[in-house]
Design brief:
Layout: E1 50-54, E2 60-64, E3 75-79, E4 84-91, H1 94-102, E5 114-116, H2 120-146, E6 152-158, E7 164-170, H3 178-188, E8 191-196, H4 199-206, H5 217-220, H6 230-235, H7 242-245, H8 260-267, E9 277-279, E10 282-290, E11 295-300, E12 303-311, H9 312-323, E13 337-338, H10 340-344
Helix pairs in contact: 2-3
Amino acid sequence: MGCKNCNTGNNGLPKGCNNNGSCSSGSCGTFTVFDWLADISLNISDQFKIVEVRFKNGRKGYFRNSDLQVSKGNPIITETENGYDIGEVTLTGELVKHQMKKKGINIEDDLFSLLRFPNENEIKKWQELIEKESSVQVKARVIAIQLGLKMKISDVEFQADGSKAIFYYTADGRVDFRELIKRYAKEFKTRIEMKQVGLREEASRLGGIGSCGRELCCSTWLNDLRKVNTSSARYQKLAINPQKLAGQCGKLKCCLNYELDTYLDALKDFPKKDFKIKTKKGVALLQKTDIFKKRVWYSYKDNYKDWFEFSLKSLNEMIEINKSNHEVSSLEDYSIFHQDEIKQIPEDSITRFDKNKKIKHA
């Protein structure tokens, strides 16, 4: 992908990333597209003339290339509405066409062009602007606080020629920028562009370590930030605790969607609703469900502390009896394991943790 450790080996098989996520080139992240055609000679007479270029914060653009011989990783000067900008070539060839189609960009649209390779002075000016961005961000936040605006400046990006600065911000509602832009233009002596980003997108750019101990998915490999609902947690029988279910962005964790389909498939075997079992001893209510072990726990309505464990097969048998307008004899007759049996086993017994299966009498 980005570094030499990601190239193809001598036997034609991929080497893989031996840097374990700490790629020195910084291109093994969520915004990188793996060019699987890089080592394949396609023998195409008319090479695709549009190139993908990435700028700061993962911002990408597509530019027409007339006669420049560019390759992945090259710094390049691109055309803009006013002036120029410097980015890094991230993709060339036929895969660019696929990426444009994926993002809904028409090949026939009017696109800006690649201008030239940057010289030493242009690279130096570009690096000075990048170093300046952190101090500008601090000043921008102070000005926003002074104006009493309910917003957060999360990042600043200067155009490579210094003619424009993009301020990325997050806000819960609409913000009046009229006075703010005047103050920014007077303070920073450049054209100002305000761009609102979502909380998930902000977290993906800033990065961090999640509660699992790994780097955030959105800042490493996840580029499809789908909506996450509390129903995802309910289907997985998780406690609705905002402090545990929320990520660093303040929204529900994206990983709640990873295993959701597996849970939904497993739940197909269970009754759609929390079925109340009618027995001769009284009504029994559902207390707990173990989806993958296909186990359920019920207790009598007048005794919540006394739980009875059932297999899914036994539960369906009791449900069918109730549907035929008959009452189940008792929960004890269908139970696999009962809490009272624990008390009967001595504490020093080797088999005290074993579950004794109860034989159901005909």
